[in-house]
Amino acid sequence: MATLRRWNTGSKGSLFDRLQNDQPRLKGDAAFILSVKNNLRHIFNARPGECHGTKELGIIDVNDALLSTEEIQSSICQSIRHCIARYEPRISQTQVVVRQDPITFTYYFSVIAQIAQVYDVERIELDIHINNNKLEVI
């Protein structure tokens, strides 16, 4: 049975954020950045072909790929850039690079981009780590 839920129409969050409505009430820039991170987490943990309405949504499975080869690293970076450009309109001028943690020697992806705030454009840097077969946006 369908129910009606109250929407916060003043929110700048993604559609998923407004529908779920179960996150802590943050205000201003913190809520905006959290909304972007959550949207990216949803996008990055989808796999191409899984969404019937949008077949190209998602990135290739990084667990199946051997991250040590430059070709695989480059294709994952390109896939991340493509998904951000297509499915997160609040971010622009995106650069994605693969980095290796000097202590644990694990690979992660670093995203440097511009984010459009209401009155300002700000440069942000996000790290994407592989954690339990999922990508976490930090």
TrEMBL record:
<feature type="domain" description="IraD/Gp25-like">
    <location>
        <begin position="35"/>
        <end position="101"/>
    </location>
</feature>
<dbReference type="Pfam" id="PF04965">
    <property type="entry name" value="GPW_gp25"/>
</dbReference>
<dbReference type="InterPro" id="IPR017737">
    <property type="entry name" value="TssE1-like"/>
</dbReference>
<protein>
    <submittedName>
        <fullName>Type VI secretion system baseplate subunit TssE</fullName>
    </submittedName>
</protein>
<dbReference type="InterPro" id="IPR007048">
    <property type="entry name" value="IraD/Gp25-like"/>
</dbReference>
